[in-house]
Amino acid sequence: MSENTLTLRDRIEEVLRTVYDPEIPVNIFELGLVYEIRIGDNNRVAITMTLTAPGCPVAGDIIREVDEKVRAIEDVSDVDVTLTFDPPWNKDMMSEEAKLELGFM
Questions:
Q1: ∠ at Cα 13 (7, 16), nearest 5°?
Q2: Which residues contact 7 (CB under 8 A, 6 or more apart)?
Q3: CA-CA distance, 33 to 90, in Å (whole number)?
Q4: Apex CA 98: angle with CA 93 and CA 103, to 5°?
Q5: Which end of the chain is more exposed for a tag (fewer CB within 10 A), N or C?
Q6: In the predicted model, is pLDDT for residue 1 greater than 50?
Q7: Beta-carbon neighbour count of residue 43 at 10 Å?
Q8: pTM over 0.70
Q9: Three-state secondary structure along 16-56?
Q10: Which residues of 12-40 are buried (b: 16+ CB within 10 A; e: fewer)?
Q11: Do residues 73 and 8 lie in contact, with contact meaning Cβ atoms separated by under 8 Å?
Q12: What are the backbone dihedrals phi and psi of residue 51, each rounded to the nearest 5 degrees, phi first?
């Protein structure tokens, strides 16, 4: 698919698949860490996400990378990344692909 035929949501999901938790060789999207992507007026993007653990030492790095990569997408006017631990992440939130990759299946 060319860049032009992808929706803004597709492009956001695509870029989120390039963000990795440094301790796990699977991207944050497949891990199920992205709870919600909202696209509002003027293509303001709000992302609600979590981390695998509340005390994640690279939390700031991951959030900064999400913000920078989504902000760099053409047509995105602003980005707001919200971190939540409700509900807490668990391995059932991972995609089948992630579970296979990590040997949970």
A1: 145
A2: none
A3: 9
A4: 110
A5: N
A6: no
A7: 14
A8: yes
A9: HCCCECCCCCCEHHHHCCEEEEEECHHHEEEEEECCCCCCC
A10: beebbeebbbeebebbbbbbbbbeebeee
A11: yes
A12: -130, 165
Within 10 A of 63 (CB to CB), how many other CB atoms are there?
Answer: 18
Three-state SS at 83: strand
d(CA 92, CA 43): 31
Torsion of CA 7, 16, 37, 88, to 10 degrees: 160
Look up residue 59 and give its two tokens.
């939390």
The per-residue pLDDT of the chain, averaged, comes to 92
Domain boundaries, the chain: 8-84
Q: Which two tokens stand for residue 31?
A: 């891990």
Answer yes or no: CATH 3.30.300.130 is held by domain 8-84.
Answer: yes
Q: Cβ(63)–Cβ(79) under 8 Å?
A: no
pLDDT in tens, 12-52: 999 999 999 888 889 999 999 999 999 999 999 999 999 98
